[in-house]
Amino acid sequence: MKAEIIAVGSELLLGQINNTNARYLSAGLAELGISVHFHTVVGDNPGRLEEAIRIAESRADLLIFTGGLGPTKDDLTKETIARHAGARLVYDDEALVSIRAWFDRMGREMTDNNKKQALILEGATVLQNHHGMAPGMLFASGSRHYLLLPGPPKEMEPMFTVQAKPNLARLAGFSGPIASRVFRFYGIGEAELEHRMSDLLDNQTNPTLAPLASDGEVTIRATAKAKTVEEAAGLLDGAEAEIRKIAGQYLYGYDEETLVSKAASLLIGNGLTISAAESLTAGLFMSELAEQPGISAALTGGVVTYTADSKKEQLGIPAALLEEKGVVSEETASAMAKAVREKFGTDYGVGLTGAAGPDPHDGKPGGTVWVAIASGEEMRTRELLLSGMRNTNRIRAVKSAMHMLIRMIGDTSVRDN
Amino acid sequence: MKAEIIAVGSELLLGQINNTNARYLSAGLAELGISVHFHTVVGDNPGRLEEAIRIAESRADLLIFTGGLGPTKDDLTKETIARHAGARLVYDDEALVSIRAWFDRMGREMTDNNKKQALILEGATVLQNHHGMAPGMLFASGSRHYLLLPGPPKEMEPMFTVQAKPNLARLAGFSGPIASRVFRFYGIGEAELEHRMSDLLDNQTNPTLAPLASDGEVTIRATAKAKTVEEAAGLLDGAEAEIRKIAGQYLYGYDEETLVSKAASLLIGNGLTISAAESLTAGLFMSELAEQPGISAALTGGVVTYTADSKKEQLGIPAALLEEKGVVSEETASAMAKAVREKFGTDYGVGLTGAAGPDPHDGKPGGTVWVAIASGEEMRTRELLLSGMRNTNRIRAVKSAMHMLIRMIGDTSVRDN
After folding, report:
1. What is the value of ipTM here, to two decimals?
2. Do B38 and A38 touch (CB under 8 A)?
3. In the CATH hierarchy, which top-level class contains the domain A2-171?
4. Of the partner residues B26, B43, B295, the one whose CB lies closest to the CB of residue A13
5. Given Cys at both, which of A10, B23, B89, B297 links B119, Cβ 3.0 to 4.6 Å?
6. B247-291: per-residue pLDDT in tens?
7. What is the rounded CA–CA span in Å between residue B412 and residue A15?
8. Helix (H, G, I), strand (E, B) or coil at A127
């Protein structure tokens, strides 16, 4: 089964928003073994939309539309498909009730144009919208299937995953299992990893291996097809063993794990607490940790000391040390880590100081960063020489600190066992 | 002139990354008055890429490609265009020198496959890559133009804006002026704003008005076409006067301004300093401010007090107050704002406490947030009842605090004058 994703909306062609729906849907379809050969974006123009439908019908069995189901005159997706397929539009009672209820909750009058949102293609399977008003639908015509989804990701994503995906799995005769595993690396570049793995990548058939780099991290997605779940898992295990031989020391996690989620789960799982003293990152390290559910068991708090004075006053870093070694130095980062750990009474204390860039700071070139992590027993430090923009460097500094923390907890818990 | 943007890369069809390039390019083309009617995404497959080229040639004068210019076997964009257009590929000496220099800087051996990146379509205008290796090119064949750009946004964006855009402006016979102005609103929903502006939106011709909602903010982009710059600016001023009449109290900024950049520039411009005590946001308020260049003049630092104990120990919030009023309360937020302001000796102190959600926290439902801002003369507080996911609520809390700060500095500087 081949699919094409058609996003409808002039705001996409004007560059006002990214077509994040196409990415979300593509990832979901890949899990079902449905190949996506094209994405198309077309504006709120019925003629051009119909042209896009005709082209997609010539090369796909499943057409997935996002957007254009709303109440305004510009919303034309289902009207255009109805005309093109010779189908009627009829009111769906459940959708109508749900739209009325939406307005009641808001304490507002339902205007006539909103009724249009309850129109569906006759004979379609209706996908109720639990996060907005316009329902989606799955419609068959000839040998093709048409899935219509709302544009706002908050409405589209749950509707696709909860309601549409099981239907598509059946349509695709999905008997599985297709299993995939994402391997996550830190500390090695994409080119270097691909170079080391070139034999493996050249001879991949099952599982297939797809490397991807983003923001200082590299991932490899392995996808295996097999007759049973066990067989698929065995194929992935085999690939993992090969990958570990080649670059095992850089592998830090799997699938949806990130450096932050891994660090958080290690802290929480080991009953450890943490605090941070942040200069160039100004709270980003703690804020990233705080995104993780359950983190209140581990994250006690910390201090942002953006100025040199605040480092002295809030953390008691000696003026002589700042003078002699500099604000951006291994000694200052270590002193920050040690001071915040003591101040907040935590197992770990993190110190981050640096020149975010592009300008030098305190005599150090932009991109120079020192990370220190103090525990009761040891102090680890790392110098980074980053070449990105200001905010890229701040994000990289946080990632590096998370990576150090993962290593440090990992080494300690291995030693303790 | 009509354009189509064709992104080449299987990673896009697998849902591994978003096609952010299409957005960036579309916004840039809109500024030149070049209409974009379609975006297409196609995988690293020469047959399907050629099909996409044929279709695009039937409906566009300018084909813009991103991706597929790299060194690997999967990179096929220029090879496919060359075959399709009957053009030769030749080495570009400058690109070759630049690729060699890149490897020299990295201290690594240049492998043969990297040489392929210096191949260009014979007769094309070469766009050198100052942020990577593969050059771009602008190529003419028949009545059509083909712009080839690298896939990584860090390489593509400057190459497009600095090198390609002036060339495209000439091709499009761009005599201008098309002027646009983005109006930024906070505190009003998209539906409510559109409702108030319905007459204006229905009768728009020049300037055109395009509303857009994202993440709790709403913007309206006004685009005017005229014979002179002055005339275009006059048309925009006229639209602004109308918009101010309808929703002036919600308008906080223009164009690329954000709540954060506006808050930062007001702080810096007025020589004011700020500190923050953050609980649910855990450093996000300070970190967002720190993204702004020049902020070290204003941001002194602050404290993250994630636990109740740290609020007592680090900020001296009385246990009785936390007990009686609760951690999530107007009184606690105010006490945090006051304490951090005194501790760091700043003009403003911000306190943020709340239940990020989804679970209740300290008896308050998830999404309940209190923001307080203390200055020497006054204390302002605001309660938010948010319904988003955990991180959406944290981001909204920060935006609301930035908005309060903008108002507070604005009111004070008006009063002082």
Report:
1. 0.77
2. no
3. alpha beta
4. B26
5. B89
6. 999 999 998 899 999 999 999 999 999 999 999 999 999 999 999
7. 37
8. strand
